[in-house]
Amino acid sequence: MFGKPWRLCRRNWMGTYREAMKRIENQNIDDKHLAERVLSWISLALEPLTVGELQYVLAVELDEPAPDEDNIPDEGLLTSVCAGMVTVNQESNVICLVHYTTQEYFERIKMSRFPDAQTTIATACLTYISFDVFAEGYCRSSQELEIRLQKYPLLEYAARYWSDHACGEPEEAIKELALRFFSQSSKVMCYAQATHARARHFEDGLYFVKQTTGLHVVASTSLMKVMRLLLERGDVEADSKDESGRTPLGWAAAQGHKAVVRLLLQSSNVKADSKDESGRTPLSLATENGHMEVVRLLTPHTFNLAGCIAPEGRSI
Q1: How many angstroms separate the Cα of 167 from the Cα of each of 123, 226, 306?
Q2: Do residues 247 and 240 make contact, with C-beta atoms less than 8 angstroms apart?
Q3: Which residue has the higher pLDDT, 124 or 308?
Q4: How large is the average pLDDT for residues 186-205?
């Protein structure tokens, strides 16, 4: 549609970004390393990051029990080391790539330029939600929660997206870190609350499902290696129920994670037809969410199919 002028313009943009990357390469080693971390985070983040969120994640150090305030980089440094490819929206305080073509450029080069970035991001997120301060557990009021989120600006992002960044090859690298985190119930409750921080408030507190265990959390992801490690622990109840009465199998079925469902069904302690507080079974949850492969997997293990109507009239 746009023809040759558009292609020429696009090549010029790509050339400009390549030159910018060369300028980054020629910086001192600390500035180069910081620029690469900033660019990898911005280009791979699953939602826009504020300056505060990015500053705090760049201060995270593996195995440290708390963020190191002395490691937080100055806002001006975040943009200056990136050779003009990063800007800050003054209204939203979101730090982002300077143009949509910049994002296109990094989409093309991110796997070769930042091959370990997803592992680094997943590790940083898990390290952050593992900080000792979160052993205090969940906040008892919305005001307390707001204070926590302001003081620890990366908490919500890290809780919501660590598992997305950990999918695939990064899972092998983070599985032991995840296992340590999910063995600490009070931190898991803080995590569970943070994932629901955008929900509406009820009375004086923020609603979220309490009595959540590491198994419930991991069952709602596709992280098979972490799930297997949790199930191999002797102190884990594979069929435990959270406050809503839902089991790990129910969460896996609702999300359509077939491999996790199969793994849980191999446990002799798991009841395939267990009902939650709303009377829904793993089979009915899979059915109402349209996960027909999971439905077919669960059906032989379920004795009561009443009320399980397949979406769009499909048979089970």
Answers
A1: 12, 11, 35
A2: yes
A3: 124
A4: 74
**CA–CA dist 115, 168 (Å, integer):** 13
Sheet architecture: strand order including 86-88? 49-50, 94-97, 86-88
Task: Read off the amino acid at residue 242.
Answer: D
**247-274 tens-digit pLDDT:** 999 999 999 999 999 999 998 889 999 9
Closest alpha carbon to 295 in 305, 283, 307: 283
CA dist., res. 71 & res. 153, Å (int): 15
Reported confidence tier of residue 88, pLDDT bands at 50, 70, 90: very high
pLDDT at 2 over 50: no
Alpha-carbon distance of 181 to 171, in angstroms, equals: 14
Alpha helices, H only, 141-213:
142-151, 155-166, 170-182, 185-195
Count CB atoms within 10 A of the CB of residue 314.
Answer: 11
Residue 250's alpha-carbon distances to 234, 255, 292, 297, in angstroms, are 21, 9, 15, 13
Measured over the CA atoms of residue 235, residue 238, residue 241 and residue 242, the dihedral's sign is positive
Q: What share of the chain in percent tops pLDDT 90?
A: 66
Q: Specify the pLDDT at position 202.
A: 46
Average pLDDT rounded to a whole number, residues 176-204: 82
Burial class (CB in 10 A: 0-12, 13-18, 19+), 191: buried
Give the integer Cα–Cα distance in Å for 294 and 286.
6
Contact assessment for residue 230 and residue 215, using Cβ atoms and an 8 Å cutoff: yes
Residue 94 DSSP symbol: E
Q: What distances in angstroms separate CA 148 from CA 55, 70, 133, 276, one per listed residue? A: 17, 20, 10, 31
CA 16, distance to chain mean position in Å, is 33
Q: How many CB atoms lie within 10 A of CB 121?
A: 26
